[in-house]
Amino acid sequence: MTDALASLPQNNVLVKIEDGVAWVSLNRPGKRNAINPGIVFEMNQVLDVLEAEDSCKCVVMTGSGDAFSAGMDLKEYFREPDAGPPVARERLNRANSAWQWRRLMYYPKPTIAMVNGWCFGGAFQFLCACDLAVSADEATFGLSEINWGIIPAGIVTKSVAAALQQRKALYYIMTGDTFDGKEAEKIGLVNFSVPKAEMVDKVKELAKKLMEKNPHVLRACKVGYHYTREMSWDMAAEYLASKIDATKFRDPEQGAAKGMSQFLDEKSYRPGLGAYKRD
Ligand code: ACO
């Protein structure tokens, strides 16, 4: 364990690394893991540390107790900072955007959201920013903003628009109706929903699959996906052409050459059916 990992507060956010997977839990179970300034600033610190931590190959974001996250803390994230100095309000918004999507979407390691229970409002931001998501069938999701008279702001509306088709997105934004894990899977908000008793094993299986891939290329894949969605077709083609060169050039394990040789020369595997053998 590095000194940086050992020095994490382990207070509002718990971190445990096992077999390459960092299990990161929002840790305010008594408040259903509502996101307060404590979580915001600690989570940024956690992401900094895990980025540099060699023993962490994959990050799983989840919540302690029976909630994933009840969204932003209405008292500590909204009411109290709104009454304080604007500069502090702005700093808090910036720090929250950083961990919830600016950093997480482009995080250099694969990320999986594990939705273990209540998931409301602002929690959709980091749910959608994670690369993949697994839910418990028993989880309850909701865009509850409309129920207390605000729009889904931050980046909630944009995240939902990116993840869901229009009819579903607007239905849940405009009604605030709740839905369960199975519905989340059906509408594409999560990759898989399984009974809660099977959820951790499902996440481990998915993490294992991701950790078998070339991490350098895996990162370029997800960054390329997010950036090209905002580009024109021509710009995307140019970007991806440059990116594939850069990826090959910088790849510490020179995976493309290795994979090609294992298929064409050694005939030891088939790329269509699995990954090349890494050292
Ligand atoms: N902000 C502040 N406090 C919260 C939040 C929240 N988002 N969610 C829960 N809490 C607090 C409650 O006030 C309560 O505190 P207390 O024990 O000091 O009274 C404690 O957490 C437990 O909450 P209960 O409501 O008693 O828990 P229960 O399990 O019955 O219900 C549920 C859970 C459904 C999540 C409920 O707490 C709830 O509706 N929370 C608000 C969900 C929400 O609308 N989030 C905001 C989305 S909008 C946005 O994020 C921008």
Spatial separation of the terminal alpha carbons: 23 Å
User: What is the CATH C level class of the largest domain, in words?
Assistant: Alpha Beta
CATH topology of the largest domain: 2-enoyl-CoA Hydratase, Chain A, domain 1
Question: What is the number of helices?
Answer: 12
| β-sheet strand percentage | 15-25%
Identify every distinct bound molecule in the structure, by name, code or SMILES.
acetyl coenzyme *A
Number of domains: 2
Word description of this protein:
With 279 residues, this protein is an alpha/beta fold. The chain has 2 domains: 3-211, 2-enoyl-CoA Hydratase, Chain A, domain 1 (Alpha-Beta Complex), CATH 3.90.226.10; 215-273. Helix content is 49%, strand content 15%. The chain contains 12 helices and 10 strands. The protein has helices at residues 3-6, 37-52, 74-82, 86-102, 123-129, 156-163, 166-175, 181-186, 196-211, 215-229, 233-250, 255-264; strands at 13-18, 21-26, 58-63, 67-69, 111-115, 118-120, 132-136, 140-142, 178-180, 192-194. The strands form 2 sheets. A 6-stranded mixed beta sheet has the order 1-2-3-5-7-10, sandwiched between helices. Strands 4-6-8-9 form a 4-stranded mixed beta sheet. Strand 1 and strand 2 (21-26) form a beta hairpin. Helix 4 packs parallel to helix 5, helix 5 (123-129) packs across helix 6 (156-163) and helix 10 (215-229) runs antiparallel to helix 11. The longest helix has 18 residues, at 233-250. It starts with a helix and ends in a 15-residue tail after the last helix. The mean pLDDT is 97.
